[in-house]
Amino acid sequence: MRFAVALCVLALFVATLALDNGLMRTPPMGWLAWERFRCDIDYKNMILNSSHSWECEVLFRDMADRLAEDGWRELGYVYVNIDDCWASKDRDSNGRLQADPKRFPSGIPNLASYIHDRGLKLGIYGDMGTLTCGGYPGTPLDKITIDAQTFADWKVDMLKFDGCYSNATEQEQGYPAMSKALNATGRPIGYSCSWPAYQGGLPPKVNYTQLGEICNLWRNYGDIEDSWNSVLSIADWFFNNQDVLQPAAGPGRWNDPDMLVVGDFGLSMDQSRSQMALWAIMAAPLFMSNDLRTISSGARTILQNKVAIGISQDPMGVQGRRLIKEKSGIEVFWRPLSDKASALVFFSRRTDMPYRYQASLGQLNYTTGSYKIYDVFAEREMATLKDSTHFVVSINPSGVVMWYISAPADQDQENTHIGGKLRGPAFHRHANGISPIVL
Ligand SMILES: *[C@@H]1O[C@H](CO)[C@@H](O)[C@H](O)[C@H]1NC(C)=O
Ligand SMILES: *[C@@H]1O[C@H](CO)[C@@H](O)[C@H](O)[C@H]1NC(C)=O
Ligand SMILES: *[C@@H]1O[C@H](CO)[C@@H](O)[C@H](O)[C@H]1NC(C)=O
Ligand SMILES: *[C@@H]1O[C@H](CO)[C@@H](O)[C@H](O)[C@H]1NC(C)=O
Ligand SMILES: *[C@@H]1O[C@H](CO)[C@@H](O)[C@H](O)[C@H]1NC(C)=O
């Protein structure tokens, strides 16, 4: 009972820390154009092919249709997000941003209503600075109020605010100012800040307490690319810095390791499951950047895995951690979930053949009891394991085995993992025992 009380107090603590717009209490999910579609190629196509001048707008309508009709929306994938290169090179006569009329001939408000009609939400992109990274008009300090109001007038639901073409001083003013300006419009608009990525991602330059107060999510690190190297280097950076990053996350405020590239060209099926599993452990936003019109059924099955999504969307909102980094190349990740459940991911960095990894839940610091194990990607119940039972999992090269572990039914334990103490910022200073160990 004492533990339950502590959790309630912590919940209050977290609530006052998070940006107070009521949004994104679980990591946001949807689709984001950038990694798969960028803008240059599309732009060239548009110039070359006048019969195709609607390409850009049609892309977003197509993705909205797919999200609504192919079972994505019901699973939580509700955002349809535009990235850079949507704007006209010039502001209008009132100093407002306007969409490129060739790429968005019917305008953003129209696209917003198309998307809202399908039970989805629209995200847009801006940049704290004189220009966007792609060279389109940015939002310098004196344009923050008018741009926030423009997005609200268009009924936009989320803003990704990049940071090209500004310096540290301007960013320090601009990111909090945009948060205030969005709030002042009265429209709830999810706010994604690229600020920490421009500060190197770590304290003392980055103040994660402040970020949690002004942003719903933030990009800490570089852009993802469609390759396993890119996915792996991002995951490594986030888990190597988990002592700093893990306590920063919670309901309404998330670390963002960038888009899911599952369904593109660079990842094998095993690597795709690894990205999905590690992003769920990290409580990462799940923004797919792929072509939902032509996605393979294998990739779709991974992205639509209900238990993996359930782990990602756990209402307690505690980001997971790497528990173990073995010399053999096996790593074990853990995330505590509501109802005393948890998730484990066994991941192999090996490049030879499936590896048989032996452990027991006790070795992973689970307390005495019997646990029901569900294999997330095999989609089946496994044997019930006692904490002391030695088990072997076979992990493919660059693949994962992911388990959803129910609390022991026959037990009224206060928590089921020694790391259960690690419920968020208030407990973090006690969590030294959870740092990665080499066995
Ligand atoms: C603006 O901030 C206030 C105070 O933090 C909050 O109560 C309100 O819901 C916010 N409104 C929007 C639209 O974000
Ligand atoms: C122009 O669009 C048509 C119709 O989609 C397509 O078949 C053709 O390949 C495109 N041409 C170029 C140069 O992109
Ligand atoms: C940042 O940019 C502003 C506006 O261009 C300029 O006034 C200021 O001196 C710059 N600060 C630094 C530290 O470069
Ligand atoms: C970080 O931000 C918080 C909240 O805005 C503030 O109270 C604290 O002083 C800041 N920490 C540092 C080291 O600047
Ligand atoms: C288990 O807990 C002990 C004591 O807190 C700690 O030293 C050890 O590193 C933990 N092991 C794992 C795998 O987390």
Automatic annotation (TrEMBL):
GO terms for molecular function: alpha-galactosidase activity. It comes from the Eukaryota. One of its GO terms (cellular component) is lysosome. Residues 317-399 form the Alpha galactosidase A C-terminal domain. Coiled coil: none annotated. Its EC number is 3.2.1.-. The keyword Disulfide bond applies. The keyword Hydrolase applies. It is an enzyme of class 3 (hydrolase). GO terms for biological process: glycolipid catabolic process; glycoside catabolic process; oligosaccharide metabolic process. It is found in: Lysosome. Keywords: Disulfide bond, Glycoprotein, Glycosidase, Hydrolase, Lipid metabolism, Lysosome, Signal. Residues 1-18 form the signal peptide. InterPro entries: Aldolase_TIM (IPR013785), GH (IPR017853), Glyco_hydro_27 (IPR002241), Glyco_hydro_27/36_CS (IPR000111), Glyco_hydro_b (IPR013780), Melibiase/NAGA_C (IPR035373). CDD domains: GH27 (cd14792). PANTHER family: ALPHA-GALACTOSIDASE, ALPHA-GALACTOSIDASE/ALPHA-N-ACETYLGALACTOSAMINIDASE. Homodimer. This is Alpha-galactosidase. It comes from Salmo trutta (Brown trout).
